[in-house]
Design goal:
Blueprint: H1 19-30, E1 37-41, E2 54-55, E3 65-66, E4 70-73, E5 87-94, E6 109-113, E7 125-128, E8 132-136, E9 139-142, E10 152-153, E11 164-166, H2 174-182, E12 187-191, E13 195-201, E14 205-206, E15 217-218, H3 221-231, E16 235-242, H4 246-259, E17 262-266, H5 277-284, E18 287-292, E19 296-297, E20 303-307, E21 310-315, H6 319-337, E22 350-355, E23 359-360, E24 366-376, E25 379-384, H7 393-397, E26 400-404, E27 410-411, E28 416-421
Parallel strand pairs: 5-6, 13-16, 13-17, 14-15, 17-21, 19-24, 22-25
Antiparallel strand pairs: 1-12, 2-11, 3-10, 4-6, 4-7, 5-9, 8-9, 18-20, 20-21, 22-28, 23-27, 24-25, 24-26, 26-28
Helix pairs in contact: 1-6, 3-6, 4-5
Length: about 425
C-alpha cells in the first residue's frame, strides 16, 4: 500500500505555500548559481549587470571648470562688492571652449569664461554675468561679492581617481553609462543575459495570427511573457505551442531545460488528469518540485521547480494569473540569473492612493487587485478593475495594482493603499 502523503489533500493537491515563503525557497536555491561574465562595449551595456566593481582611473572632471557664463576671478578681488560699491576688474583674457586658457590670472584682473570653460591658473571662482556691469571693452564692475569656489566644479568633484564608480551586481542605467563615458571607459565586464525558454501547452491553444475557431484560444501568454522576460533583461527562445501528449510535452521541456537558463510553460499548472508539468519537472532533475500552489490570487496553481541548476516554472494558463506569477516569482529569479544583487534591487515604483470602493478578501491569501489611477487635485485615487483572471483586458486597462495581505479580510473605501505601477 502506498503511504499517505500528508503534504497533499484528498484530491492529491499539495498544501498551499505562502507567497513570501515560496519566494524565499526559490531565491535560497538560486543563491549558489554563478552567471557567466563577458565584456561588452558601452553602447551595448544598457540594462546589463556589472560582473565586477568599476573604479575611476582618473579624476572627473580632470581640471576645474566653470558652471556659469561669466568672468573667472580671484574671489578676494570681489570681497564686499555691492551695487553701490562695486569692485572694478580689468578683462585680461578670454577662455574658449575646448581650449586651455592662455596666461595666468593676476590680482585685479578677470577672464571671460563660458559654462564648462576651464578655469585659468590662479583663478578660484566665477562671477555670474548677471552680477557684472560692463564699463567698457576692457573693464567690468562686479556688483556682488563671492567666495572662493563659487560657480566652479573642482578637479575630482564628480569622482576621484581610485574611487569606486560602480559596484559589482549593479544594473546599468543611462546615467551610469554617462559616468563611464566621462571616465573614458568603453568596455565593461557584465554578466551574460539569462536565456529564457517559453512553452505554451494545450491542444486548445492556437497561434495568435490564426483565425478564431470554436473551442480554440489564441496564444496570449507566449507574447506577454516573452515581453516581460525581455524587459527583465533576458533573451527569449519560443518553443512554440506543445501538445498535451506526454511524449511531446516531456521532450520539449527537456530540450528547453538543456538549452536555456530558465524555463516556463503556461497552461499545465492546474490540477487534473492532463497536468504533466509536475511530472516533467520531477523527471528532469533534482531537487525537482520546490513549490506547487501558493496563497496568491490570481496565480494560486503555480509550479516552481529546479531541474539541477535550471529554474522551471509552470505558470497558470489564464493570462492575468500568468503575468502576476511572473512578477512575483519569475522576475526575481531572472534578477539572480542576471547577476543582480537582489538585496540591493530598487523597489518597484509606487504611489499612495485612496481606494474608491471597498474590496473584500478571503483571509489566508494574498490578493493582487488591479487598479486604474485617477488624479483629483493633489491626491491619487484608485479604482479597482474587476474581472476574471482570463480577461487580459483588465491588465491592459490597469495602471498598477495593490495588495491585500494574507491576514486581512479586505479594505474599506477611502483607505490608503500603495499602488505598484505597471511599466
Amino acid at each position: 500500500m502506498t503511504p499517505f502523503d500528508q503534504s497533499r489533500d484528498m484530491l492529491g493537491r499539495r498544501a498551499l505555500t505562502r507567497v513570501s515563503e515560496a519566494r524565499t525557497i526559490l531565491l535560497k536555491r538560486l543563491g549558489n548559481l554563478h552567471p557567466t561574465a563577458e565584456r561588452v562595449v558601452l553602447a551595448e551595456a544598457l540594462d546589463r549587470v556589472t560582473a565586477e566593481p568599476i573604479s575611476a582611473a582618473e579624476d572627473l572632471p580632470p581640471a576645474p571648470r566653470s558652471t556659469m557664463d561669466g568672468f573667472a576671478v580671484i574671489a578676494a578681488d570681489t570681497f564686499g562688492a555691492t551695487q553701490s560699491l562695486p569692485a572694478y576688474l580689468n578683462i585680461a583674457g578670454e577662455v574658449l571652449m575646448g581650449a586651455a586658457p592662455e596666461g595666468r590670472l593676476e590680482r585685479g584682473n578677470c577672464f571671460r569664461i563660458p559654462t564648462g570653460g576651464l578655469l585659468p591658473d590662479n583663478g578660484d571662482s566665477v562671477v555670474m554675468l548677471e552680477h557684472t556691469v560692463p564699463v567698457d571693452e576692457t573693464m567690468i564692475e562686479v556688483v556682488k561679492g563671492i567666495g572662493s569656489g563659487t560657480n566652479v566644479i573642482k578637479t575630482g568633484d564628480d569622482i576621484r581617481a581610485g574611487e569606486q564608480a560602480l559596484p559589482a551586481g549593479h544594473r546599468l542605467r543611462p546615467q551610469d553609462l554617462g559616468l563611464l563615458a566621462g571616465l573614458g571607459i568603453d568596455e565593461v565586464g557584465v554578466y551574460r543575459r539569462p536565456r529564457v525558454g517559453i512553452i505554451a501547452t494545450g491542444d486548445e491553444i492556437i497561434d495568435h495570427r490564426q483565425p478564431s475557431a470554436v473551442g480554440k484560444i489564441r496564444n496570449i501568454n507566449s507574447v506577454t511573457l516573452a515581453a516581460l522576460a525581455k524587459r527583465s533583461g533576458a533573451t527569449v527562445t519560443d518553443y512554440g505551442i506543445v501538445s498535451d501528449r506526454e511524449e511531446i510535452f516531456f521532450s520539449t521541456v527537456a530540450r528547453a531545460v538543456a538549452e536555456t537558463d530558465l524555463v516556463f510553460f503556461s497552461g499545465g499548472s492546474s490540477v487534473g488528469v492532463r497536468d504533466l508539468g509536475e511530472r516533467a519537472i520531477e523527471r528532469l532533475g533534482s531537487p525537482g518540485i520546490l513549490v506547487h500552489g501558493v496563497t496568491l490570487k490570481p496565480g494560486k496553481p503555480i509550479i516552481i521547480g529546479l531541474c539541477n541548476s535550471t529554474p522551471v516554472f509552470g505558470l497558470p494558463g489564464h493570462p492575468v494569473s500568468a503575468m502576476v506569477c511572473f512578477d512575483f516569482f519569475v522576475r526575481p529569479a531572472l534578477s539572480v540569473l542576471s547577476g543582480e544583487r537582489t538585496a540591493d534591487c530598487p523597489p518597484a515604483p509606487s504611489v499612495s492612493a485612496r481606494l474608491m470602493r471597498s474590496i473584500n478578501s478571503a483571509a489566508g491569501r494574498l490578493d493582487v487587485i488591479r487598479v486604474r489611477l485617477v488624479r483629483d487635485h493633489d491626491q491619487w485615487h484608485c479604482r479597482p478593475i474587476l474581472g476574471r483572471s482570463g480577461a487580459i483586458s483588465t491588465m491592459s486597462r490597469a495602471d498598477g495594482y495593490f495588495l491585500i495581505d494574507e491576514d486581512s479580510q479586505g479594505l474599506a473605501e477611502g483607505e490608503s493603499v500603495e499602488v505598484y505601477i505597471y511599466q
